[in-house]
C-alpha cells in the first residue's frame, strides 16, 4: 500500500521489549468490582458462580495464548505466568498485557450467561493489567505465595465478617469485633459462634484456583466404531497449595528447580 | 490487613509513569479481525453495523474515562487521545492502556446483540493496545492525519477490490488489476466500470469517525410539568476531515493551537 | 571478524532511545565535592579559579558535542541542553549521558594545572550525570530558571554564612543566625554588619554561567600578509539572567518562542 | 533552603531503577581510541603501558565502588560487574553508569604521567558507558566469555597484521593476506614466517585482565617494633581464563554456582 508523509509519527513509538530469560507475570484485576459484585448480587463472602466464571475465562486465555504455563486466581484477580524463554510478540510488554486483559474481559462478558443464566449482565465490566518480571525461581514462587497467602488472609476475614453480619450485627460492629484478631482467634470465632470449621470450607475459597496444563487420556470413537485412547494436554483447574515444594516437585515441566 | 513475608516481591514492579505535559494516544486494534469478520459475514468492503458497534464502544470508553478528549476510529482500530496535562492513574502507562482496551472489548461483546440482532457472536473477540507520546501539537495532528489518510487509502483500494470481485473476478485477478494503480486511476475505474462516484460514498467509510465532546441543549421536563433546556457535554460522532485546519479551529477546547 | 557463540548476550541490551522532538537536558554534578573543595582549600563562599575551571570544561564539552546549544553552570554542577531535534547517537540516553560526563571529567583533570598552578590535584575527582526530557519550551525554560534561582538562593546564604564565620562566629552560630531569615534580611545583614552590597558581587557568583554559541568576527593574517575578518561561531561564557524573556529574545537561534 | 516555584520541573525526571536480583554489567569503551592511540604512539599490536594504565583505573574504580565484585578489561574497554543483590544508588541506572565512567576517566588522566612519564597527554580522552542486566548466572558468564573470546580473536588477528606490516607489507597487503584465514592458519603464519609461538605471548595480551578481590596477608610493623600479619581484601589483577569452570570454582565468593 502507498505510504503517507505522516508515517514518520511511528518513530515516536517506544520499544518496550522485556528482559529475556526472566519469568513474566501478567496480573489482571477487576476494575470497580466492589460495586459490580453488589449490583449483581454476588453471594458473600464467596460467589461460586462468579469464581467459576473467572476460572473459565482464565482457561480460555490459556487455550489462546500457549506461552502461558500457569495461571493463579482468587477473588476478582488472575495472574498469568509466561515461561522465562517466552518469545510471544517479541516480548513486547504492552502488546502482551493488553492482549491478555482483552481476551479475559471478552470471555467474561461472553460466558456470563452460562454461569448466571438467571441474572442479566447490567453493564460491561472491565479489568486492568500489569506485567512484572521475576529473574529467579524463588522470587517467582514468592510472588505466587504472596497471592495465595493474600487469598487465605482475605477469605478468613471475609468468612468471619459475613457470618457476623448475617447473624444480625451491623457491618461496623462486625469490623470492630474483628479488629486486631489473629488467625487462630478468627478460626475459634467461626467454630464457637457459628459451628463453622474453616478447614472444611471449599478449597477454591481458601486456596484460590491454579491452572496448569496436564497430559490426560482422551477417549475417542473411530469411524469403524473402535474406541481409542490418546494423550492430550489440557488446562486443568486445581485448588492446591502452591506455597510448599510438593506442587513444584509434582509438576517438573513448569521448570522450577527445587 | 496482615502483611506476609512475600510482600517484598512488589519491589520488582516497574515504574512506568509517562512523561508529563505530552499528548498521549492509546490505539487499540482488532486481533485476528480478518478471520473474525469472515466468520461473522461482515459486508465488504464496509459493514455499517460493525462500524457503528465500534463507534458505540468508543463513546462508552469516553463516557467512562473523562480524560479522553478525542477518539478516532476506522476499520477495526480506534485511537484515544488524552490531553497533555492528563493525570489519569498517575500517568502509569500499562494501567491506562489495559483499562482502555478492556473497556472497549467489554462493550464490544456487551452491545453486539444491539447491532447484530440476527447474528450470534460465535466466539469472544479481542483487541490489543499501545500507547504513544507526542510532545508537540503538530506531531499529534500528524498522527491523526496518518490514520485518516490510511483510512482513505485502504477504503479506496477495498472499494475497487470488492467491486471487481462482486463483478465476477477472482480475488487474485482483482489484486492484479489494482497493482500499481494510483488514486485517480482507482476513482476512474470505479466510475467507468461500476458507475460508482467514490466521493458520494458514505463519509464514515471514506473518512472514519471522530468523537469529541460538544455542549448541546438538552430538554428536560421538571416535576411541575415545565420544560427546561440545559447545556450538557456529550460525546458526538462526526465524520469530518481532521487533516486540515478547519476542524481544529472549530474545536478550540481541544487545545491545539493553529 | 569471526563471531562467537556467546554473541547472543547482546540481546539483553535495552533500547533506551529518548522520545523525539523533546528538549534534552543532561546535568552533571560533582561527586563528594564538599570534601573535595575542603581538601583542595577552595575559597569560601566562591572560588573563582574553581568556577573558571568548570566553565573551561563546559566549553570543551560544547566544542566536542555540537548538538549542545546551551550550557548553564553554578557551584559544582553543569547542565547541557540538546535541541529538540537532536539525533546524537540515535538519541540513546546512556550513550549521551556517559559521553558528556566522561568528557567533562577528563577536561577537569586535564586543565586543573592551568587554573591551579600552585595546587596539586590530590586525587581524581568525579561527577555523576542524568538526563531529563522537557516537551515544551516553558518547561525547559522553567528548568533553567530553577537552576538559576537555586544559584541565587545558595549564594546569598553562603555569602552571609562565610561572612559570619570569618567575623569570628562558629559554624553553628552562623547557621542559627540565618535560620528562618528571608532574602531581604540577608541582604540587610550583609550591608549593615559587613558593608557588603550583595548586588555588587561578581555576576558569576550571583547568576552562574551560561554558555551559548555566538557568531563573532575573527581576524586572520593571510599568506600574503593581508589581514582578513571572517565570521566564526564560538562558545561564549555569559553571566546573564536567563529567567526573564530578554535573554531568549536576544538569542532567537536557541529556538525558544517567546 | 527555600524552594522556588520552578521546582515542579523535577517531576519530569524518569525513574530508571533496574530490576532487582539481577547481575548488572557496566561496560565502558574508549571514545575515538583509534585516533588517540595513534597520536600517542601506542605500541602495536599491544602497548603494555596503556594496558597497565587501564588496569590501574579499573582497580581505582573498584576501590571506590565496593559493590563491584569483578572487572574484566581488554584493549580500550572495561566491564564492571555488580552483584545481583547490589543496592548501589537504589539501582538507578544512569547514576551508576555515569559515576563509573566518570571515575574511570578521571583516573586515566590523573595516572597517565605514572605510566607514560616520557609522553605528554595531548588532549583529554573520554569513554562512554552502558549497563546490561543478566538474570541468570549462565547468561552473565556468557557475557564475560564473549568479551574474552573477542580479546583472543582480535589479538591473534592484530598480532599477525602488525607482524606482516613490520616485515614490510603495506596495511592493505596484510589485510588481504589474512582475509578468510582461520585461527590455526594464523598461528601457523606467525610461527613459520616470524618464529612467534602465539601461546608464549604475554597472557595479558591473549586473555585480557580480570580483577577480583582476594584476601591476602599484609605485614605491618607495630609501634613496639613487632611485625604482625593481618588478612586484608585487595583487588588483584589476574590474566586467567574466565570461560571454563575452573576460575568460578576457585572463586566461590563471586556467587556463581557451577
UniProtKB/TrEMBL annotation, chains A, B, C, D:
| Annotated Thg1 C-terminal domain residues | 139-242
A Gene Ontology molecular function term of the record: tRNA guanylyltransferase activity
What cofactor does this protein call for?
Mg(2+)
Task: Give one Pfam family.
Answer: Thg1C
Keyword annotations from UniProtKB, A to Z: GTP-binding, Magnesium, Metal-binding, Nucleotide-binding, Nucleotidyltransferase, Transferase, tRNA processing
Source organism's superkingdom?
Eukaryota
Residues annotated as domain tRNAHis guanylyltransferase catalytic: 6-135
Q: What is its EC number?
A: 2.7.7.79
For this protein, what does the record note about how its cofactor is bound? Answer: Binds 2 magnesium ions per subunit.
Q: Which GO terms describe its biological process?
A: tRNA modification
The UniProt record gives the binding positions of Mg(2+) 2 as 29, 76
Q: Where does GTP bind?
A: 29-34, 75-76
Where Mg(2+) 1 binds, per the record, is at 29-30, 76
Q: Which reaction does it catalyse?
A: a 5'-end ribonucleotide-tRNA(His) + GTP + ATP + H2O = a 5'-end phospho-guanosine-ribonucleotide-tRNA(His) + AMP + 2 diphosphate + H(+)
Its biological purpose is as follows: Adds a GMP to the 5'-end of tRNA(His) after transcription and RNase P cleavage.
- Check the record and name the PANTHER family matching this protein: TRNA(HIS) GUANYLYLTRANSFERASE-RELATED
To which protein family does this belong? Belongs to the tRNA(His) guanylyltransferase family.
Q: What is this protein called?
A: tRNA(His) guanylyltransferase
Organism of this sequence = Diversispora epigaea
**What taxonomic lineage is listed for the species of origin?**
Eukaryota, Fungi, Fungi incertae sedis, Mucoromycota, Glomeromycotina
Amino acid at each position: 500500500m502507498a505510504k503517507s508523509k505522516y508515517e514518520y509519527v511511528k518513530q515516536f513509538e517506544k520499544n518496550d521489549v522485556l528482559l529475556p530469560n526472566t519469568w513474566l507475570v501478567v496480573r489482571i484485576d477487576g476494575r470497580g468490582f466492589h460495586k459490580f459484585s453488589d449490583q449483581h448480587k454476588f453471594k458473600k463472602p464467596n460467589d461460586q458462580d462468579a469464581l467459576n466464571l473467572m476460572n473459565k475465562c482464565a482457561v480460555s486465555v490459556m487455550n489462546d495464548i500457549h506461552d502461558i504455563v500457569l495461571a493463579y486466581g482468587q477473588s476478582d484477580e488472575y495472574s498469568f505466568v509466561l515461561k522465562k524463554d517466552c518469545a510471544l510478540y517479541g516480548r513486547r510488554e504492552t502488546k502482551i498485557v493488553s492482549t491478555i486483559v482483552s481476551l479475559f474481559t471478552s470471555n467474561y462478558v461472553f460466558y456470563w450467561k452460562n454461569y448466571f443464566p438467571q441474572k442479566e449482565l447490567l453493564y460491561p465490566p472491565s479489568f486492568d493489567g500489569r506485567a512484572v518480571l521475576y529473574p529467579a525461581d524463588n522470587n517467582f514462587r514468592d510472588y505466587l505465595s504472596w497471592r495465595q497467602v493474600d487469598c487465605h488472609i482475605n477469605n478468613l476475614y471475609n468468612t468471619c465478617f459475613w457470618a457476623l453480619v448475617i447473624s444480625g450485627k451491623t457491618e461496623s460492629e462486625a469490623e470492630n469485633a474483628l479488629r486486631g484478631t489473629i488467625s487462630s482467634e478468627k478460626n475459634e470465632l467461626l467454630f464457637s459462634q457459628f459451628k463453622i470449621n474453616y478447614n472444611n470450607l471449599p478449597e477454591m475459597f481458601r486456596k484460590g484456583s491454579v491452572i496448569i496444563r496436564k497430559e490426560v487420556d482422551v477417549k475417542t470413537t473411530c469411524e469403524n466404531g473402535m474406541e481409542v485412547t490418546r494423550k492430550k494436554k489440557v488446562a486443568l483447574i486445581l485448588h492446591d497449595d502452591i506455597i510448599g515444594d510438593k506442587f513444584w516437585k509434582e509438576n517438573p515441566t513448569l521448570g522450577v528447580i527445587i
